[in-house]
Amino acid sequence: MKVIVKRKRQNAETPVVIHTEFIKLEAAMKLCDAVPSGGMGKNLIQDGEITVNGETCTMRGKKLRPGDKFSCLGADYVICNEN
């Protein structure tokens, strides 16, 4: 008998709180611990494995503002203000 276990996610999107007007994609990935290092984040972005607002993004310096969403390694994140 084969048992398949699936992890349920309580929140569909993890909030990433910023205190500035915007944050760069690579910095946001490091801030929320989506990647363990900047080098890994750089490679994922350049390989086209990151989506921003539903579209593939290959720009490390892409500016994300509150309300923007990105996906990294199967997890979803949303940029939020501190309020």
Summarize the structure.
The chain is an alpha+beta fold.
Labels describing this entry:
83 residues; alpha+beta; two-stranded antiparallel sheet; 2 helices; 7 strands; globular
Q: Roughly how many Å is the radius of gyration?
A: 14 Å
- Indicate the overall shape: globular
Average pLDDT for all residues: 88
> Strands of the biggest beta sheet: in what spatial order?
1-7-6-3-4
Low-confidence stretches: none
How are helices and strands ordered from N to C?
A: EEHHEEEEE
Kindly estimate the percentage of residues that lie in beta strands according to DSSP.
Answer: 25-35%
Structural class: alpha+beta
Reported for the largest beta sheet, the result is:
5 strands, mixed
Q: What is the β-strand count? A: 7
Q: Give the fraction of residues assigned to helices.
A: 10-25%
Describe the structure.
Helix 1 (25-31) packs across helix 2. The protein starts with 13 loop residues before the first strand and ends with a strand. The strands form two sheets. Strands 1-7-6-3-4 form a five-stranded mixed sheet, with helices on one face. A two-stranded antiparallel sheet has the order 2-5. 18% of the residues are buried. It contains two helices and seven strands, in the order ββααβββββ. It is an alpha+beta fold. Helices cover 19% and strands 27% of the residues.
